[in-house]
Write a structure and sequence with these properties.
Structural class: alpha/beta
Number of domains: 1
CATH class: Alpha Beta
Strand order of the largest sheet: 7-6-5-4-3-2-1-8
Strand content: 15-25%
Largest sheet: 8 strands, parallel
Shape: globular
Order of helices and strands: HEHEHEHEHEHEHEHEH
Number of helices: 9
CATH superfamily: Alanine racemase
Radius of gyration: 17 Å
CATH architecture: Alpha-Beta Barrel
Length: 222
């Protein structure tokens, strides 16, 4: 068994039924993703549209690709024909741009609304009050090529577990508050990464995004 396969097996053992694992493969080469694929992993997360497109072209077609990084409107076209889910939807402008590209492709694209809960201004996402005001206008009724599946967020980068738990609880509260607005399809609470996914699961996460614990530390120079 390869090292990547061993890491995947260990993480799967720690996840309860009903929690989906997204293997965060951003900056890692296609060969490493293929190792994870051969170990049974099918859902992978990327943060750069052009890199994602290149990997899509070289890897098996049954891979389910998730866009998890900040997405510029002019880059949607690279991934709209095939992406399974865009987790990082953080503005009305991006919502409308994804709808436009999805319609061009004749597809319905699943999205998550990214909520800003971290005590860091550098993190992206909707302010909860801002999102509430936006949804009050019922915008998705006129956006047939989008399906809102839930919310995503990133906790504050800290070793203080109480702060991380506070952020995860805030995300879960947003998720539960919005669920009646969207109905049964709204089933995904994406929170938790390599260093905090166990706590996220304890706080109600249904999807975790784990990268370095599977593939090792990322090379940001690439």
């Amino acid at each position: 068994m390869s090292e990547i396969a061993t890491h995947l097996a260990h993480i799967r053992e720690t996840l309860p039924a009903g929690v989906t694992l997204v293997a965060v493969s951003k900056t890692h080469p296609a060969e490493m993703i293929r190792e994870a694929y051969e170990a049974g992993q099918r859902i992978f997360g990327e943060s750069r549209p052009q890199e994602l497109r290149e990997k899509y072209e070289t890897l098996p077609r049954d891979v389910e690709w998730h866009m998890i990084g900040h997405l510029q409107t002019n880059k949607i076209k690279y991934i709209a024909p095939f992406v399974a889910m865009i987790q990082s939807v953080d503005s009305a402008r991006l919502v409308e741009a994804i709808q436009k590209e999805a319609a061009k492709c004749g597809r319905v694209i699943d999205i998550l609304l990214e909520i800003h809960v971290a005590a860091e201004e550098t993190k992206t996402g909707w302010d909860p009050a801002e999102l509430h005001d936006y949804l009050a206008t019922n915008p998705f009724a006129a956006l047939p090529n989008l399906r809102v599946r839930g919310v995503m967020g990133i906790a504050t980068n800290t070793d203080d577990e109480a702060v991380i738990r506070r952020d995860f609880d805030a995300l879960r509260h947003c998720f539960e508050e919005l669920r009646p607005h969207f109905g049964e399809a709204f089933d995904t609470l994406s929170m938790g990464m390599s260093h905090d996914y166990r706590l996220a699961v304890a706080c109600g996460s249904t999807m975790v995004r784990v990268g370095s614990s599977i593939f090792g530390e990322r090379d940001y120079s690439k």
